[in-house]
Amino acid sequence: MRCATVNRSMDDTKYWVAFNRIPAFGRARFERLERHFGNLEDAWVADTSELRAAGMEQKTVSAIADQRSSISPDAEMERLQRLGIEAFGWNDPRYPARLKQIYERPPVLYMRGTLQEKDEWSLGVVGTRRATTYGRQAAETIAGDLARQQITIISGLARGIDTVAHQSALAAGGRTIAVLPCPVDRVYPVQNLRLAQSIRESGALISEYPPGMPIHREFFFRRNRIVAGMSLGVLVVEAGERSGALLTARNALDENREVFAVPGSIFSPYSRGANELIQQSGAKLVRDARDILTELNLTMVSEQVAVQQALPADETELALLSCLSAEPAHIDEIGRQAQLAPSAVSSALALLELKGLVRQVGGLNFVRLH
Q: How far apart (Å, rounded) are the C-alpha atoms in residues 95 and 161?
């Protein structure tokens, strides 16, 4: 039996989407249902006693029972299709692997656009909405240079530094992802509607909120953990002492991600937060894109992406990758698990190593990267 993960069916996805429509139904409750029932289809049709056995509080059990009569999983998926929106839970192969590692990972993501494998090489770029000329120039230069090196720029589509980061990535011909504080069927702020359309064409718009949900104040803070969670690290360009960008940086630190900051004038209120990150939190001082690429060991990303594009993955490569992890596995064992001939395993592993997806760690043992 091959190790390749079987994609969740649309029938399972629609129940993730349906449960995500129930107010205050977050990570912990999804985990309890998944652990108890094995799949969310069985959880959706479970009676109240089964839901209580799964660890649901009485208030939640009542909410599920009440909401099921007004939520149609099939209708939810049809609505998403009409709106051109994709949705997927954390077991779906499309769900960003790095985001899945964070504690408060969103159970469901909604997307317009596309995610690609190379988006795993990404950096969050955030800062104040009241960017100075200096801050804009720094964000434009660094984000653009990173994009030219095949690094995906992730930000929050807010005014100021976020906007400059997205625009600079696009101008450099790179990819960028916007994490929205609202559903992806609308854009906030509305002034960035045209920018959002460009991002959708050359990256993705991402949200954890279903279409039609009104914006709440806390949504602006909650998106910070997604920006940090999808990124290898976070760069703060300009930030005041109470800037939301500092929350993104703290999310990154909490999840053991790298934090970078562009130093600013000691006289500027818009640089106090960034300067304090360098002084008190150990953020890496950044002068240019090379500082980030070197710190994250990303200097060869453009070459690796070129190899990936020249050698697209096939079923053999996917089967081998599914049998590999961070723990070393011998080539013979990999072949047995994948049910592939030794010659096929050897050649496919060589290609995967060129792509930077696997590494031989000695004695014909291999580990999976990224």
A: 26
